[in-house]
Amino acid sequence: MLELLDQPVWLLSLGGILGLLVGSFLNVVIYRLPVMMQTAWRDDCQSFLAEDSGVEQASTEERERFDLIKPDSHCPQCNSPIRAWQNIPVLSYLIQRGKCASCSAPISIRYPLVEATTALLTMFVLWQFGNSLQSAFAILLCWSLITLTMIDADHQLLPDSITLPLIWLGLIANSFGLFVDLNSAVWGAIAGYLSLWSVFWLFKLLTNKDGMGYGDFKLLAALGAWLGWKMLPLIIVLSSLVGAVLGSLMLLRKNQSQGTPIPFGPYLAVAGGIALFWGEYLVSAYLDYSGF
């Protein structure tokens, strides 16, 4: 509590408000970005098949615009537009009791949860790192991890449009030495990618199955670029432990077979967040306990 009081109230308040607003936008990204990617893939496939067969491709010019800005927010059940006062993060959900104001269709609780989580993490970063450039980059990392967690949970997909810029942002941040030195960041990105890449191909050679997606390699590479190579063992161990426990519980709860694919990205993201805030303490505690 004393450390919390060291940070200005206005800074934490602004961080919370900003987090709520960004969380509302992240909900849009989480829903729309995978749809945009699927549409782009479909168009590319149609274009390739049209060129290969000599058949003229159907025009997509009349297709309704669908991106992160358009169409405007609306109820998926009754298509009623969502007005500004109905789109206030968290508060609107509580006022409307989790229902559409027009048709009373239920609104998923995940929307206010994403908004609240984004706000709390933004405030926590400011509490930890203060009013600094380090905070600005750490906040961007947390926002990205929230987005990747939800998209991977929904679609088992980690978009390159987020993971690849995240690698470069980590290297840029550490060119100023914000989290680790640049040498550790570069080797963190390399080791992060190659470690899971090696596990993937070893598993594939032994079982002839894909054990994980390429997006997992890129996400661990990004975490290595942000936190350095020394944090990679901690991130891998934490994500594996959390994934094993929660994954088993999910399979039991849904009564699914062991062959059911489980997204690994959310566990990497959680482990990366833990390493960001408490990584050095956990590593030091382990070394002290083990006697190294």
Brief overview:
This protein has 292 residues and is an all-alpha fold. Helix content is 70%, strand content 0%.
Word description of this protein:
The protein is mostly helical. It has helices spanning 2-6, 9-53, 91-95, 110-129, 133-155, 160-175, 182-207, 214-227, 232-254, 265-290. It contains ten helices and no strands. Helix 2 crosses helix 5 (133-155). The longest helix is centred in the N-terminal third of the chain and has 45 residues, at 9-53. It starts with a helix and ends with a helix. The model has no long low-confidence stretch (mean pLDDT 87).
| Helical/strand content category | mainly alpha
Q: What does the main sheet amount to?
A: none
Low-confidence stretches: none
Let me know the number of strands. Answer: 0
Strand content: under 5%
Helix proportion: 55-70%
> What kind of oligomer do you see?
single chain
What is the alpha-carbon Rg in Å? 21 Å
Indicate the overall shape. Answer: globular
Descriptive keywords:
292 residues; mainly alpha; 0% strand; globular
Please render the helix and strand layout as text.
Elements lengths: L1 H5 L2 H45 L37 H5 L14 H20 L3 H23 L4 H16 L6 H26 L6 H14 L4 H23 L10 H26 L2
Helix pairs in contact: 2-4, 2-5, 4-5, 5-6, 5-10, 6-7, 6-8, 7-8, 8-10, 9-10
